[in-house]
Amino acid sequence: MKEQINILLLGSGAREAAFAYKILQSPRTKQLFIAPGNAGTEEFNVPGLPILNFEAVRKFAEDNDVDMIVVGPEQPLVEGITDFFEDSPIKVIGPSKAGAQLEGSKEFAKEFMFRHAIPTARFMTVTHETLDEGAAFLDSLNPPYVLKADGLAAGKGVLIIDNIEEAKEKLAEMLNGLFGEASNTVVIEEFLQGIECSVFVITDGEDYKILPVAKDYKRIGEGDTGLNTGGMGAVSPVPFADEEFMQKVERSIVEPTLRGLREENIDYTGFIFLGLMNVAGEPMVIEYNCRMGDPETEAVFPRISSDLVNLLEGIADKTLGIKKMTVDPRAAVSVILASEGYPGIYRKGDVITGLDELGEDIVAFHAGTKRDDNGDIVTNGGRVLALTALADSIPEAAAKAIRGAETVKFSGKQFRRDISKDLV
Ligand code: AMP
Ligand code: GLY
């Protein structure tokens, strides 16, 4: 083993900023590169590197003696970056293209769960040819109706509809290209009633560890109202995900998932993100993702008190079983600051102030930020910053994060004051 390693991190959001924060804490890290990064990570950024051009990524990695590539978002994984580096000494943290199908295809994920008896909503897969069967399946369900585009649709491919006639219309529209090719195939699902949480697993293909549980808040408005966003905040831990619940998650979801992947000879190392619904105390899978969540990472990683790079090396070298993970018992709440207009058309270029007044106990993870020609840090995306606070209780952490959200200023700033309030 080398004494220290060079790491290339792919992505540009607050999730990647949280990865960078943990990677930079590690004495195992020699040099960190982030492509493309944002204004919070500027000394490490490689702005011009196209992360879906794997040849270009390889050239950069080889030229800079990169030992490990950490992939933030799903797309490089779904497009096969891990397979591309299969014969290279450079280790990619993330599953093969076949494994990433757990996120890349809802149909694949549902059928995988069915094959391995993993609890999930009843479903049917529909294409243009089977539209009539799909409509009949909708008739057999109680409202509301859940329609999901099979492929990646930038988090927008799920419709939840109360009215049966409208559901049938939307089904036909989806099959006619509402979400482009992603909805050539549609999964119709039974609606699950309950409260959601996000469980993250790291695995080297054999051993696994479950990271601290989190919950994210997807709607723009307080009380979970208004449009869906990329996520307006997160909290960890989640009180209802107690020991009994987590034992069920481990036995009925995590273990059968990893066993199923092995039985089907699917190479899977890296992160598995389980989007779960707590249905009257029973965990059921809403979705799999092949990466960490955003904004959950911003609440989960600050609670991991052990060395993340050591764990990543465990994943890469298949030595996760002998690695130790320790968790900070404190609670973390992360509040997202978003631009005016988000999640619709939003403004960019507003000057951000107050970042240097946050104090030591709030971490600011940048997302849509950049440095403009005057040297100011300005807004450059819908979600601008994630402000994470740790404290002995969830309400204290939330109060601290909100104070941080008030301290940072830019024109049109939006944030939710109710992150975590439904849990306490
Ligand atoms: P997905 O992209 O599969 O995570 O779906 C987006 C969101 O839709 C989820 O986070 C849930 O809030 C909701 N959702 C998806 N599937 C179901 C379901 N079967 N029952 C209830 N809500 C669902
Ligand atoms: N927070 C949900 C996601 O990352 O998909």
Key descriptive features of the protein:
424 residues, alpha+beta, Rossmann fold, Dna Ligase, domain 1, 5-stranded antiparallel β-sheet, 21 strands, binds adenosine monophosphate, binds glycine
Bound ions, cofactors and other small molecules, one mention each: adenosine monophosphate, glycine
Largest sheet: 5 strands, antiparallel
> How would the global form be characterised?
globular
**Which CATH first-tier class of one domain would you pick?**
Alpha Beta
Share of β-strand residues:
25-35%
Task: Return Rg in Å.
Answer: 21 Å
pLDDT < 50 runs, ≥5 residues? none
**Which class of secondary structure composition applies to the elements?**
alpha+beta
Sheet with most strands: strand arrangement:
11-14-17-21-18
* Cα distance spanning the termini: 45 Å
> Which fold does the CATH topology of one domain refer to?
Rossmann fold
Label the CATH architecture of one domain. Answer: 3-Layer(aba) Sandwich
